[in-house]
Each structure stands twice: as C-alpha cells, then as structure tokens.
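Hey, quick one: can you model this chain's 3D structure?
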Amino acid sequence: MDATISTTLPFIGDNLFEPILSDRLILRPLLLSDLQAFYTLRSQPEAMAHSNKGKPDANIDETFDKLKRLQPPYHDSHLYFGIFLKKSDGTEGDLIGDGGVHKFVSTKTGWPEFGYKFKKAYWGQGYATEFALAFIGFWLSLPRTQRSIQVTPSSIYHQDTLGTTELIYAWTTSDNKSSQRVLQKAGFESFKGLDNGLINWRKVLFKK
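Sure thing. Here's the predicted structure for all 208 residues.
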C-alpha cells in the first residue's frame, strides 16, 4: 500500500530550458530535427538493452512517435534531454545518448525516475557519470513546490516520520554493473523492499 507524504518537487511547467554544458557534453531538449540521430541511438541493441523497452525500435516511425512524446514543453510529466558531444570550440557535436527524468511519477515508486542510455562506442569513458552529475545539478537548481504525493513506503528515506524528504529514483538490472557504479558516483544508494527483480536506487535531494 502506498504512503501519502508531503514533499517538494521541481516545478517544470511550460518552461523551455537552455542547453546544459559540462566539460565534454551538451544536454538539451530533443527536437524533431534530431530524428535521424535519435533513431541511430534507439536502433542499437546494446543501447536499448537496459532501457524500459529493452529492445531496439523496429523502424524510424516508432522512433518518431517516441520523439514526439519527448518534445517540450514538459508540463511536469518528464524532463528528458539529448546528450551531445561538445566540440573543442564549444559547439554541439554528435548525439551520443539521452537521459534525464523520463517519468515525473514513476510507476515503481511514485518518485521522479531518472535514467539514461548511450551508444556503445561511448561506454566506459566517463560520459554517463558526467551526464548524471550535470543533470542532477540542474534538477537541484529548479524551483520547488510543496506537493502531496503517493510513494512506495520502502522508498522513503525517513520511514519513521514520513517527512518532507525529496528523492529521485532509478533502477538497474542486476547485471548492469557499469550503471550501478555510475549511480553510486552520482550519490545514489540502493534500497530493498520492491519485489520487481531489479536493483532499486534513491538519491536524497532535500531533507529536514
């Protein structure tokens, strides 16, 4: 049974966000003009293996349908960006991944759900950790509103008080060791209590 708690959550509304810059990456909202690059990412079996879908898109029309759903404005439903290389002159390079909060209300816990994926050629080079730290820093900078939400009790950081702690949730499969390391570097901790066959993670953002 879910617990109703009072907490804070970012206010997204109809804001259009400027690109987020890190040392090697540019994060920005995906546009319809990114379709071919987005299809290249989503048609790669390795990139899609640990996603919610778990398999590549069958064709570019399927990718287009997904891309349309990711268009801004977001209206507190998701905040999911394309991940692009940053060239030496600071301009945007190739799309190498995507990530962010793809569900503002996770079906697994009720909390915002964080995730990402990268093309296989860019695995093991620190890009995922760089992205996670940049995105979460941006997420923390957003204005907050007080909300009453329903969450899975096992996800709550202070179960004794059901207080106003704000969390962000993520999950990995048990064999995805690299993403587990990324989440740990980004300050996530694993927690038990969800019988979903996954390793479940939470990051405390704000607490009393």
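One thing worth noting: Strands lie at 3-10, 20-21, 25-29, 79-86, 92-103, 113-118, 144-151, 166-172, 189-191, 199-206.
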